[in-house]
Design brief:
107 residues; mainly alpha; 77% helix
């Protein structure tokens, strides 16, 4: 097996792993966003508790983060800009990664 084939296989394995993380995060984000929308609908009827609204508002902030990160992903040079934005956010004390894309131990 040549060096090129080994490198290609490693890159494909890493890509598969990253795509699985993305799939898991998007699935979780979708479920949480559906719950958020149901809570906001209940709120318009005056049926949502303060705790439910607190959770829904937290999810809305996470949803906005997802939109922001999603916008960065479609830009040219995304493999360079996205890590730079995450590092800059950490330096400024801003969390730019949505909660649904974190491991349970990272929260």
């Amino acid at each position: 097996m040549s060096f090129y084939q080994i490198t290609k296989e490693k890159l494909l394995e890493k890509l598969r792993a990253n795509l699985l993380i993305l799939q898991k995060g998007m699935s979780k984000e979708s479920d949480l966003t559906s719950s958020m929308i149901r809570t906001y609908i209940k709120s318009t009827r005056g049926q949502a508790s303060k705790e439910e609204m607190k959770i829904a508002n937290k999810q809305f902030r996470s949803f906005l983060k997802t939109l922001g990160v999603g916008t960065l992903v479609i830009l040219p040079f995304a493999p360079l800009t996205l890590p730079a934005v995450v590092l800059l956010g950490k330096k400024l004390g801003i969390d730019v990664i949505p909660d649904s894309f974190r491991d349970d131990g990272e929260r």
